[in-house]
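Researcher: Good morning. I'm working through a list of sequences from a screen, and I'd like to move beyond sequence-only analysis. For each chain I'm collecting a predicted structure so we can compare shapes side by side. This is the next one on the list. No need for commentary yet; just the structure.
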Amino acid sequence: MANSAEFAYSRRAEDYINLLGSMSAVHPSDQQLVATWADSLEGDAIDAGCGPGHWTDFLSERGVAARGIDQVPEFVESACSTYPSRAFLVGNLETLDASTCSVGGVLAWYSLIHHEPDKIHIPLHEFHRVLRPGGGLLVGFFEGATVEKFAHAVFPAYRWPVSAFSEKLRAVGFDVIETHARSTAGQRPHGAIQARRRGRP
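Model: Good morning. Structure tokens for this chain:
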């Protein structure tokens, strides 16, 4: 996420936390998808772009040694206060504070929506770097018929066809395992992709 997006979220952090910063705001099918993915992981996980920290806590409650990383200091401060037993860190998704091949899973739930299409490979390469061979990646994003920029409430974001995002993942060394798309009345269409870093565990 570019610095301008980071500043935009910093200004709106309290509103965002109040509106979307808990599992009660999560669609039940998304919660089930992340739960099933989490149960398949072996090793530590990074909640990349953790926001207020509710997904990090959710993963931890399922027995995953998870830590949350976000560029917005206000989110990390809130997460540390709300979930004091969990690990959170201010950091950049394009240069994660993790060793190469050191984690079993990366969750990127709507944390890549502000990356420009010609630059999204940068965080994807970084996720690939930190994951062990066979490690799991789960990405959530706004779905659409074409790659398209739109006026998100906080900062301009992008819609992606599941097929186009899948190609981006394959190009940096992931195998796409499962894809999802959902349309709900009154909400923007949603996409999700479960992928695995190529290579034997």
